[in-house]
Amino acid sequence: QVQLVESGGGLVPPGGSLRLSCAASGGTLSTYTVAWFRQAPGKEREFVTANKWSGSSYADTVKGRFTISRDNGKNMVHLQMNSLKPEDTAVYYCAAGTNRAITSQLRYASTYDYWGQGTQVTVSS
Questions:
Q1: Cβ atoms 44, 97 nearer than 8 A
Q2: Cβ(20)–Cβ(9) under 8 Å?
């Protein structure tokens, strides 16, 4: 059973940056597909980015601004968020799932078996 714990959220002004981290225990993240999702108040959870052995994919809304990366030595995943906008405000969740998922499946929450508790990101002046 993989446990995921996110950190790094907070309040940042528009145009600012944040780096989220996701620490894993109970399993080796390098053997999983990993992803970040987010959920804003009153909205459904939405895909942000995912990474598997073949590369990374991003939602159009964050492409060019967000970057997902792995630190296999520390069993962690990071999400670097730049040029933040008020519409990026949400609870951000780290997720891990089968490494057999195909690219078209990466943006669906049902692909992932393990989830963190989330970390709040608020973009406001």
A1: no
A2: yes
d(Cα 102, Cα 63) in Å, to the nearest integer?
A: 20
Please give the Cα distance from 79 to 66 (Å, whole number): 7
- Phi, psi for 110 (deg, rounded to 5): -65, -15
pLDDT of residue 62 exceeding 90, the answer is yes
DSSP 110: G
pLDDT digits (tens, 9 = 90+) for 83-124: 999 999 999 999 999 888 888 899 999 999 999 999 999 999
Spatial separation of the C-alpha atoms in residues 39 and 49, rounded to whole Å: 13
